[in-house]
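Async update (no meeting this week)

Hi team, since we skipped the sync, here's where things stand on the single-chain job. The sequence we agreed to prioritize is pasted below, unchanged from the tracker. I ran it this morning and attached the output directly underneath so nobody has to dig for it. Comments welcome in thread, and please keep replies under the output.
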Amino acid sequence: MIRIIVFFSIAAMVLSAGISYGDIPFENEEEKSETSYALQRGGANVLTGWLELPRCVVYSSVEIPIVGLVFGGIQGSGYAAWRTILGLTDLGTIGLTGDKLYSEEFPDFVWQADWIPEKVGWPSE
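Output:
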């Protein structure tokens, strides 16, 4: 029982630290590549990687109804696995990868990604 309490306490601390860093505008990119930021980003991505699945389903379903459920589920599964792997990589390498594995389409944290597309409807509209 104590192990479970310790595990969830550590998970909550890592996640809350990642959330606090998630919306901070950095002066330069060097600040962002610090070890503490990478460890917190890694912990947050390991714990919240699964949120890519509902995010992609919602995003694709709004963009293309019905078909978006299937495509979003497939894309979300891949993104969730990738985000979790990147989180483990950040934790395992103590942030030595920097920002090379993240992009504008795949931001540092899942809550920074777009959940609803700007233009809604069929692509031919």
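Quick observations from my side:
Helices lie at 2-22, 29-32, 35-48, 52-63, 67-93.
The mean pLDDT is 77.
Reply here if anything looks off.
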